Amino acid sequence: MKRRKGRFILATNDLEEELVNPRDMLKSYKAQSSTESGFRFIKSDELHLSSVYLKKPERVAALMVIMTLCLMVYSVAQYRLRESLKQAEETIPDQKNKETNNPTMMRIFRLFIGIQLLTIRAHFHFVGKMEFPQTL
User: Fold this and answer.
1) Distance between CA 105 and CA 94 in Å, rounded?
2) d(CA 35, CA 30)
3) Nearest C-alpha neighbor of 82 from the set 107, 101, 106
4) Secondary structure letter of residue 1 according to DSSP
5) Mind giving me the DSSP string for 87-133?
6) Which of 40, 52, 57, 133 could make a disulfide contact with 122, Cβ separation 3.0–4.6 Å?
7) Model pTM score
């Protein structure tokens, strides 16, 4: 049954099997998708980077450092979210409304769309023993 399910082609320039184990090579290849998805995130239109115009190469390099840092924070947040959901044995609905304990942070951010935070700062005048708000 396993032989009929599918095939995966492994190719390398290194013919010495002692140096490159086919199982390790496949594992390493499949791990690349998480790295590539991170760069796909940086290139996506959701960040609106196309509207940023930088003239100096130093500023382009600085932006890439900031974006890489953002990607790292995003990845850590996603990892911790997934681990917390698995540990608590909880799930959330995915884009197709199926329960998952392996969501992306982008999905979580989309769940927060429409939630707004209103902060009201009031200054109080003290008159005798009572407080009255100056502004709301």
Assistant:
1) 11
2) 10
3) 101
4) -
5) HHT--EE-TTS-EES---HHHHHHHTTT---------EEEETTEEEE
6) 133
7) 0.55
Query: Tokens 């199926």 belong to which residue?
Result: 98
Domain locations in the chain as residue ranges: 2-133
Which element (helix H / strand E) includes 9? none
Specify the amino acid at residue 6.
G
9: left (phi over 0), alpha (psi -120 to 50) or beta: beta
Summarize pLDDT for 97-129 with one digit per residue, the tens: 899 999 988 888 888 888 888 888 877 666 555
- 2-20 pLDDT, tens digit per residue, is 666 667 677 777 777 667 7
Eight-state DSSP code of residue 36: H
Helix extents (H) in 17-135 = 22-43, 57-88, 105-111
Contacts made by residues 43-47, CB under 8 angstroms, sequence distance 24+: 46/106
Nearest in space to 44 (alpha carbons), one of 78, 83, 74, 81? 74
Helix (H, G, I), strand (E, B) or coil at 48: coil
**Of all helices (H) and strands (E), which one includes residue 3?**
helix 2-5
The DSSP call for residue 4 is H
